[in-house]
Design goal:
Blueprint: E1 2-4, H1 31-44, H2 50-64, H3 67-78, H4 80-88, H5 91-96, E2 107-111, E3 116-121, H6 130-133, H7 138-141, H8 143-151, H9 153-159, E4 169-174, E5 180-184, H10 196-200, H11 205-209
Parallel strand pairs: 2-5, 3-4
Antiparallel strand pairs: 1-4
Helix pairs in contact: 3-4, 8-9
Length: 218
């Protein structure tokens, strides 16, 4: 669901994994501490192999995303027909590219324009397109980001170093268990001569969430 920056309403997304049961009150408040506590508990009970867990995290961080999402964005910048298709319905092409699965069953692509800048959040949990972007950053799961980006998106974006023109509206998209969002950022000026492979290096994870813009590779 998209919310303009002037909107006061909040969209509640009901997740199968809403953390509303009393047991969650016993866990540390910060996401990193929660994960560490659960990992320690599961490893101690012999239910999880630490090496296997490390391999899964490495796969998600360095091989699945966010480079997979960058590949989609770079192709959209260079292929108008592909761009039109994913804006209308991204899933057929994402399935063909092998970029779907758990946490990415239904992805909607929203396009930045000079008139509108899009930013993504999950206000009640941390729904995120893992097959495209990999492991969500800690700040995406934080209570502060989830609460504030709906109320004061320009202020939050400014804290990321993103100061948007006053005439460009900000639209906040609230992910749910059914729908994840991927931001299609505007192609940077000066990249007209680059091919798709070169353009991928410009696409940052934050640009695909909406808290940043594409950047020239170091």
């Amino acid at each position: 669901m998209g919310l303009d920056s002037t909107a006061q309403g909040r969209h509640r997304c009901i997740m199968p994994h809403d953390h509303s049961t009393p047991g969650h009150a016993l866990l540390p408040p910060e996401p990193e501490l929660r994960v560490k506590a659960l990992e320690t508990l599961l490893v101690g009970k012999g239910l999880v192999d630490p090496a296997a867990l490390d391999a899964i995290v490495d796969q998600m961080q360095n091989h699945v995303g966010p480079r997979a999402g960058a590949r989609v964005i770079a192709r959209a910048w260079t292929d108008d027909a592909f761009r039109a298709r994913i804006l209308a319905d991204a899933m057929p092409d994402l399935i063909d590219m092998g970029l779907t699965g758990a946490q990415g069953e239904h992805v909607v692509v929203v396009e930045n324009t000079p008139e509108v800048h899009n930013v993504v959040v999950c206000t009640l949990c941390s729904c995120y397109p893992w097959p495209l972007l990999g492991v969500p950053p800690a700040w995406y799961k934080s209570d502060a980001y989830r609460a504030r980006v709906v109320r004061e998106p320009r202020g939050v974006l400014a804290e990321f170093g993103l100061n948007l023109p006053s005439e460009q509206a900000v639209r906040v998209w609230d992910s749910t268990a059914e729908i994840r969002y991927l931001v299609l950022p505007m192609r940077p000026d000066g990249t007209e001569g680059l091919d798709t492979d070169a353009l991928e290096a410009w696409v940052t994870r934050n640009a695909m969430i909406g808290t940043g813009l594409p950047q020239a590779p170091a």
